[in-house]
Every structure is written in structure tokens, then in C-alpha cells.
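SEVERITY: medium
COMPONENT: batch folding queue
REPORTER: lab tech (J.R.)

DESCRIPTION
The queue accepted two submissions in a row. Attaching both inputs and their returned C-alpha cells so the on-call engineer can compare them side by side.

ATTACHMENT 1
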Amino acid sequence: MVEIPAGTFVMGADAGETGRPEGPPRRVTIEKPFALGRYEVTHAQYAAFVSATGYSAPGPCRTLVGGVFANSPAHDWRDPGLGAAPKPDEPVVCVSWRDAKAYVAWLAATTGQPYRLPTEAEWEYAARAGSTTEYAWETDMEGGCAYANLYDADAAGLAFGWAPSACGDGAKFLSRVGAYKPNAFGLHDMIGNVWEWTQDCYVIPYPSIPTDGRAIEAAGACERRTVRGAAWMTRTDRARSSFRGRDPEAARFSYFGFRVARDNR
């Protein structure tokens, strides 16, 4: 875990795709320090949870089937369908928001520490790590291959239908956690490798409150939860610090994972 200091930042941007705005930008104050996983939760860590609890997280998982993404009942977190068995130090994938919540609940109960999912505001604050540019490392994506596993020249043969970055990060699919440079807070893979579930219900545009780092929650059932950070198959323009994904709580993809947060006592 990495200690993340309290602070204030501008969350969001005057950007986004049709029907998916990333603003309006708003000033958010993270009022208390908190801890965030230095890495995404690994396959080995998730396997330990399943072994200890007997938790069931079967498919289908949306993964590559015949070169295109499709829901596959034959694939789950044990075998996400990426051409090889998962390595222990790769991030776990094919886990839903509900699976991630079950993991952090077990971790909190097992350790006696207040582990949880990060809020969306905490996530963006930690990903920016003091940066104010579109991309966390510099002003454009082409310098990002040292920091992030995204869709680039090394994976161009997958032909997803969107342009790869011209640089190469050395990975076609998942990479081990910590393989790339950390950001200014010492966090690895905040951008790239896997999309990361956050606690928040996805709401657009951003509401006026909360602005203190708490999660946005729906009054009733939450149709979609926010995911952040892009993944190994993500195109350049979705690797911005402010970009917001949104998917149902039960969705499982071979490019979705998570990292844990912990309150300080």
C-alpha cells in the first residue's frame, strides 16, 4: 500500500465522447490521507481469496474469441482466454464489481483493517499524482509506453478497429504488475494494464456534490459502476486521466480488474 496525502485537485475535464462527458470540471478536496494499492490486485492474491472462502466467480467473461471480443462461458478469472495461463503476478481479470467488493470485504474481515474500493475521486487524484495534463506522464500519449500497457505497436496485430499508439510497451496482452514506471505517488499501472473498478455509481454530468472525495451513489439501484484507467487493449484517447468508463456491476471482462484502498485510522 502507498500512503496518498490529502490535497485538492481539479477533477474531470471539458472533454469526452458523445453521451460520455468527463465533466464539468470541479474542484475536489481529498480531506484525509488514505492508502492505495501500489499495484493492481494480482491473480495470486485473488486465488488466495477464492481458496480461503470458496467464492464462486464463473463465466461468462467477455474476451477474445476468434479474434473478436465476445462473451465466453468457457472463460473466467482462472482462464481469461488471452492465449496463456495467467501468471501469478499479473492482475486478475474477468472479475465483476461485485467480485471486487467481495474480495475487499474478505480482506477487511481477515486483516481487521478497513479495506475497500477507492472512490472515483480518490482514483483520479491518485492517478494524476499532481499532474494537470491530459495524460498523467506528459502532454501526449506517445511518451506513455514507459508508464502504461495500452494498445500499441506491440499489439497492433490484434486489429481491434482503432489505431494503436506508435510506441511499444513490450506487451501484447497483460503484463506483470509493476513492469512500468510508477507515477509521482509511487503507484504502478494507474493507467493501462486493466480497467479498475471504483466504488462510484456512474452519473453524468458530475453532480455538484460531493466534492470531498466521497463516492457518488444512486438513490436507488445503480445501473452502472465507474471504471477508470484504461487497459491493455485501450486506444490512446481513452488513456487520459479524466476518462470515465461505465459498466454493469455483474459484468466481467478480460480487461477489467481492480486495486484496493484502505482508510487510515
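ATTACHMENT 2
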Amino acid sequence: MATLAAQSGAAAYTLNPMAHPHLLKAVALQAGVSLATVDRVVHQRPGVRAHTVRRVQQAVAELERQSAQVGLQGRKFMLDVVVQAPSRFASVVRDALERELPLLHPAIFRARYHLSEALPVAELVATLDKIAARGSHGVLLKAPNDTRVVAAVARLAAKGIPVVTLVTDLPGSERLAYAGMDNQAAGRTAAYLLGQWLGSDSRAGVLVSLSSIRFRGEEEREAAFTEALQQQYPNLHKVDASEGLGLHAATAAVVGKCLELHPEVSAVYSIGGANAAILQAFSDADRICKVFIGHDLDADNLPLLRTGQLSAVLHHDLQHDVRMACLQIMRAHGVGPQQALHTLSAVQVVTPVNLPAG
């Protein structure tokens, strides 16, 4: 229980200045006990039962939580959402955020969107600098791990604008927090599934497709996948295909060249998306993909999963990610929950037979 200190005036005992102030009579009313009982608990005088002490402590905690909600009443936050990703994923981010914002009541959130598929880094940095100049309560950012982006994040932080990285991180930057999938767990899960389905005796090649090596989240997935594959399924080997940027034509071309050079490839771990393009490349090469692991239960992947063209999708709750991002920004402004936030999303394995409702 927070320490209570006496002040002048009748029954004007309040909480420590580090906490929200509560009159002793408010604590007594919340706890359902007398003012004298609360006074005895505060001053640790004898004659109070243990369960009554716990009830007073609980009452203080309840009042603190309720005060936090009162402090949020009518608070307005303007977010800037800066996402470099294929439009199919950017729309998923927008949908998740717009579903979540009404649930953050009594705080009021609004969002400005800056979405692009393949924006040059210089233009992305210019967007971040415009936000810094104009002002914002916070930035949700999915961007490549580039020193120029890291410097732009530092300029935002210097202006008092917190940045939360979403899905892919910028380690070493002055971002406030990262919210997204546990990328290392995702990579290890993909290696396990592929190894189990292909069999420990298989000597197949596994094509690993990234949209770009500049995205830290994709890089983390690939590194964890590679390590797990080498440790648990040494007969399998990895073939890299990257820089398709998650776009259909570019990804199909990159994968097509890999298939020409590696006739042993018969499985795919797609980290960067554009899975229809990868399947097209296999079809054009008259090749069979025995196992195909993808990411994200989006509009592109759902029909591929339903028809069995994808063996499994590694999914995570993007709405949880944006909720954690918003709560981090609220905390940066001194409101909202002050307890530790779990910003990593658990990996969910979705197959054609366990598609979630809706």
C-alpha cells in the first residue's frame, strides 16, 4: 500500500505525492469501513484484523486505478501511422488500429496515415521530419532499419514525440518501444513445422523469401529459422530469395531465378509475403511445393490457406500490437496504465483445418 502522510485540516490525509491523492474518507467509503479504521491502518496501530488491512489496501489500489481512468476522460491523442509495406498489409494495420481506437475510451485517439509500398528512404525520412515539425502525440512506425531512419527517430524523440516501432524494430534507435510478433519464436516455429512435415531424412532445399533484408523483423525471423534448421534438421538447407519488396511481379521474378538455380527446392518459408507470386513461380517452373509456411492471416493468404496451397500461416494478433503501441504512447504522456506492458505477440499456427471464425 502506498504510504499515507498527514496534512492540515480535518481528515485530510492523502497519498504520497508520487501517487494520486485520496482523502482518508474516500478510502473508508471505498473499503466499506470506518474512517477510524483507515486511520489505524495508516498509522499501523494495533486492533485491526488482517483481512481489514487487506481490504483498505485493496481500496487504495482501486481508487488509483479509477483515478487513472478519470485522468483519461476527454484526453485527445493524435497519432501518425507511418508504414512502408505492401498495400495489403498496410490496410490490415489500418483496420486493426481503427477497430482498437474506440476501445481505448475514455481517451480519444485520432490517426493520420502515411502509407507507402516502396517509398525511398529519403522520402520516408522527410515524412518523419514533417511530423516532427508539425507535432504529434506519437508515431507508430514500420520502416527499414536504416541509419537515416534511426536519426529521424532521434529528432522526433528530441521534440518529445514518442515512437513505437510496429512489426519490425529499429534496435539502437531512440524509439520508445517495439510492439509486434516475437520474430525469433516465429522463425523457430517455421523451422520446426518444415522439418516435421518434410522429415528428418529429407535433403530438400527450403526457399526463404524476404521482402527486404533492410527490415529487422524479417531478418530476425530468418536468423532464428536458419539456426533452428541447422541444429534440428541439418539435412535440410536454405536458399535465400529477397528484395521482392512483397510485390507480386518483383517477387515472382526473384523466386523464378532461384528455382532455375536450385532444382532441389521443394518447400518455402515466406517471410516477406507475396505468396501468390511465389506459387506462380513454382507453377511457371512446373515445380511442386510440398510445404509452404507463410505469415499473416490476411485477405491474400486466406484463400490460399483454404485451398491448401499454404500448409500453415504464422499469425499474430495485430490488434494487440496496436493496442500496446497506443498504451505505450499514453504512458509516455503520463496517463493510462503504469504497469509493465507485454508488447510481444505470441505466434499462432493457423492451418486449413483450424481457421478462426470470422
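NOTES FROM REPORTER
The two ends are 44 Å apart (CA to CA).
No errors were logged for either attachment.
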